[in-house]
Structure formats: C-alpha cells, structure tokens
Amino acid sequence: MTGVFGGRGEVAIAGYAQSGIERHASVTLGALAVETAGRAIADAGLAVGDVDGFVTGALFPTAGAYAVEDGVSIVSANWLAEHLGINPRYATGFQGFGQIPGSVAIAVNAIVSGAADYVLLHRALHNPPGRYHANPMRRAGGPQQWTVPQGYFGPLAMIALPYNEYLQRYGADRETMAKVVVEARANGARIPWSYWYGRPLTVEDYLAAPMINDPIGRFDCDIPVDGVAAFVLTSGERARDLPHRPVYVLGYASGAPTTHRLPLHWPLDDIMSIGSETARRLWQATGLRPGVVDLPQLYDGFSPFVYFWLEALGFCEPGEAHLFVQEGGIDSSRAGALPVLSGGGALGNGRMHGVPQMLECYLQLSGRAGERQRDRAAIGLACHSSPHYGGAVAYGAQPPEG
Amino acid sequence: MTVLPQAAGPEPPRPVPVPDDGSAPFWRAAADHALVVARCSRCGGWTHPPEVVCPHCRSTDPDYTFEPVSGRGAVRSWTVMRQSALSGFAADLPFVLVDVELAEQPELRLIGRLLDGVHAPLRLGAPVTVAFEDLPDGMAVPAFVLDAES
Fold it and tell me: Among A35, A204, A323, B30, which is least packed, fewest CB within 10 Å?
C-alpha cells in the first residue's frame, strides 16, 4: 500500500453550471436542480442521454425540526436522474461530512472503474422558511440527552468551542478574523451568482455585528441559501474531445476521528491531529506538496475553518495562521499571497457547502474565470468541512506527467 | 416541508433528558446531585457517554458500571451563548457553557453550564467542580462552578 492514487489525472471536469444563490429561490429546489443539471450537461457539450452516472451528497445541514423531502429540501442522485428521465447505470449518495470531496471521490472511482462514463455531480442546498437551526424539542433522547438539556446545541456552539480554544491558546483576536471574512466577501462581491454579489463587508461591519455564541458572531457563519451547482466528470481522454479545457482530478483525501466524543464536540486537538493526517494522505496520494499549490481553496462555512485548514495542510505552523492572515497572507489581490478565498468561499457566496471551492478550482484551472481569471492557476485544492471530518481534492490544469 | 408552529404564550421549559437503558443510572444519580460515569467492566476505562463498544479496549460487552467521580475537572474551552436555537433558554441568556476534562482520566469530557455567570474569570485550564441544575419532574443536569483560586 503506497497511498499513491492510482487514478491520478485519469478523470476530469468537463463542464459545470451554477444557479443563482438566493435566500429563497422562486422555484422548488428540485426544479432548480433539474434546470441546473441540464445547463451543466449542455455546457460539457453533451446530451442528457449521455449521462450514465449521478452522484451527490444530499445532507440538509440544519439542526432545525424540518422534514426532509426529496426534491424539496434535498435532491438525491436518484431523484435527479429520475426527473431528467434517465435510468442511470450508477447513482449513489455520499454519507458523511465533506459532501463535495466525498462525492468527487465516488464519481472519480466510478469513472476509473468503468461503472459510469459521464457522471453528473450535483449539490442542492435549501434554506427553509423560519429560523434555520431553531428547534422546539422538549425532550432529548439518544445521543442528544448528553448535551441538549445543558443547552449545548447546534453548529455554532460546536465551532465556538474549538475557535475559542484557538484564540485563547495562541492569543488570536477577532480583528484578525475580520480580515478572513472581509476577504471572502470582497471576492464574493465580484461573483454574479453570489448571494453577496456587489455587497462587500467592512472590518467595522464585521466587528459591529452581534455575537451569537462567543467568539462566533453573525458574519463568522455563512448565510443559508437556496442554490444548486452541477459538474460533469468523465475520463480525461473523453474530456479532451469536449468543448472546454479539462480540469484533471489529481487525487483526494479524507479522514475521521476515532476518539469517542459527545455530540457536536470538536476539540481543537481532534481537528488538527486528524486534519494533519488527511493532509499527509493528500500529499502522498497526489505527489504534491503545499508549495506547488497555486490555488488552495479553503473551506470557510465557519470562518475559523480557514485557520484550521491553513495549519492542517502545512501552509502555516500550528498556531500561526492568524499571524499569516494578519500580515496579508491570504489577500488575493496581493502578489505572492495565498488566494485561499479567491472564489469567495461559503462566506462570500452563501451556504453552498464545498461548491465555491470546487467551482473556483474549475473556473481558474480551465481558464473560464473571465475578468476574475488569475495568472497562476495550474494546481488547485478544494477543501470542505472541518479538517478532521471533511476532505480535499487536488486539481490540475494538466494531467500529471509520467 | 413542515415548519412547526411557534408556541404561543410563555416559553416552554427547557428540554429534559429522556433516560434509556444505558443512561438511567447516570440520570438517577444526577437527580440526587451526584455525578457518576460509566466504567468498562473489562478494562476499567471511563466513558462518557457510554458507548456500545468500549472506546478503550473495544470490548463489545463492556457491561458498564456507573461509579462516582470526584466532579473536579479543568476547563478546556468555553462559549458564551447569547442566542439559543433551543426553546426554553431565553430567560437564561446569555449563559456560559464550559467544556470540562474530568480529573479521573485524560479526555473524559463533559459539557455543561458554568453557573458563575458571563463575567466569571475563565481561562484554559481553570479548575471547576460539578454542580447541578434542577429541572422539572425531579430531574437535574450536571453543570459546573469555578473553584476559588488562591
């Protein structure tokens, strides 16, 4: 077992579509997914009937007491295939955290194995009416009995604990985190489909926003939205015959902690130790190292994840990501900086999970980023979720040599 | 989709734990303001919450016993809850939740309210001792108070 990914560069992204990202879409999520999938297939120069594989991660990431209804609050792979009129050779969903790298891994494996030739990978996210995480539960059974009666509930409290641990341990401050959020919003403001298009954020606005679960304030969280993105993946060989320049999957990695924990309990040491192992697997799988990545797109569904990924991936020493940010290290308008949020991330687009990271890798590496096109975009990295539960996918503008 | 209606009138009480076969001894003790923790009969390791498989020796038959612990621990992190997505906490906002490592074993963690209020002088490693919050129907949940430091 070498840990080197045997399918390096064999699969490529051939096309994409991204819906508008809105607080509440004017059409049902399933309709938006069908429409977006159709546009992605056409973008790849294919007909709907060419697609024989469907992959997604369908999680509805709310702690609220909402019913999950396929085609309305989620869109599964099978639902989408059925509503496009396709009886797929291969359709499946990724279970777990890091739905985007998880789904990409499934799609790549399906194509390398021949289980499918043209895979439509989509992600559909829904913002229900009412407060997103509000939950009127009166009795807490099962795992929740250990935390809910105490008032510990929801992803904001979950991320507040390791973030506070980071601030206290390394002497970081909220003024520095403001730079992370301002960077995401500055880039999102330039993206026409972003919820935050044309609406950058100032440091003052960030600091003046209400605290929710200290040290997490309003703008440390991505905003819940309705939105769908779809990508078409196929073999690199087939992709080279399609209209757009292929972007190659160089490898992927993920991981998960084995330490027994309370529900939603994510101590900083779990995040960093398992995250570092995921990074090690990624460098081993791809043969890459941090220094050769032009476009590391870090996950930012909660702002502290940017620090955690910077350190887990080895771009910064443990405890130094906040200093790196303070010195302008992630300012994508600055030559020599690491453009980790050039695609706006989740904070700059809305709660599209790992989509903005994958999309920015695709757009920049295929040369399709338009007026946002960057000069140096040969190797990209798209991360999703927390480093200890999620994963990352490496992309190349060229297939690997040799 | 279903959106549950907001209750009219005063806020309902906060959620109460629902004991099950694996947790009943814990909640029985808590009602008497005693903290007990599950201990594997095979390896003696403490586990909270109790798990199907012992996370220390991987026994599939850990046959847990619930034994009293000192209730002393150290704060590993904390958050100030200024909003709660749960019903029943409005009157308590803002409140502090602490992530506590119990003295009995590394990484044996409990999360509970810190009853000293939001201005308590917290720091990583601050020593705390268990206390209890009484809930309706004779139940109680573990919480913590800061130890006086000399």
Answer: A204
pLDDT of res. B8: 53
Would an 8 Å CB–CB cutoff place A401 in contact with chain B? no
pLDDT per residue as tens digits for the range A246-299: 999 999 999 999 999 999 999 999 999 999 999 999 999 999 999 999 999 999
Residue B2 has pLDDT above 50, yes or no: no
Together in a domain, B88 and B131: yes
Q: Does the distance separating the beta carbons of A66 and B81 come in below 8 Å? A: no
Q: Does B123 touch chain A (CB under 8 A)?
A: yes
Each domain of chain A, given as residue ranges in start order, spans 11-129+224-396
Q: Identify which of A69, A134, A151 has the shortest CB distance to residue B113.
A: A151
Q: Residue A402: is its pLDDT beyond 70? A: no
**Average pLDDT value over all residues in chain A:** 97
Beta-strand runs (E) in B85-126 = 95-102, 109-114
Amino acid symbol at A54:
F
Give which of A54, A121, A122 is closest to A89, Cα–Cα.
Answer: A54
Q: Which fold has domain A11-129+224-396?
A: Peroxisomal Thiolase; Chain A, domain 1 (3.40.47)
**Cβ contact A161–B77 (<8 Å):** yes
Measuring CA to CA, which residue among A388, A366, A372, A368 is closest to residue A380? Answer: A366
Pair B41, B81 in one domain: no
Inside any domain, residue B3: no
Stretch 154-173 of chain A: residues touching chain B, C-beta under 8 Å: 154, 156-157, 160-162, 164-165, 168-169
> Do A93 and A193 contact (CB within 8 A), yes or no?
no
Cross-chain residue pair A136–B20, CB shorter than 8 Å: no
| Amino acid A61: pLDDT | 87
Residue B16, H or E segment: strand B16-17
Whether residues B46 and B108 fall in one domain:
no
Q: Quick one: B142 and B75 in the same domain?
A: yes
Residues B76 and B48 in one domain: no
Any domain includes B149: yes
Chain-chain contact of A151 with B81 (C-beta, under 8 angstroms): yes
If asked whether residues B77 and B147 sit together in one domain, one would say: yes
- Chain A within 8 Å of B49 (Cβ-Cβ)? yes
A64 contacts on B by Cβ (under 8 Å):
85
What range defines the domain where residue B103 resides? 70-150
d(CA A204, CA A327): 18
> Chain A residue closest to B108 (CA)?
A261
Q: Is there a contact between A260 and B55 if contact means CB atoms under 8 Å apart?
A: yes
- Of B51, B68, B85, the last residue of a domain is B68
Within-domain flag for B1: no
The structural domain count of chain B equals 2
> Which pLDDT tens digit goes with each residue over A158-177?
999 999 999 999 999 999 99
Chain A: closest CA distance from residue B82 (Å): 5
* Alpha helices in A230-295, H assignment, sequence order: 236-239, 268-286
Contact B30, B38 (CB under 8 A): no
Q: Do A168 and B84 touch (CB under 8 A)?
A: no
B5 part of a folded domain: no
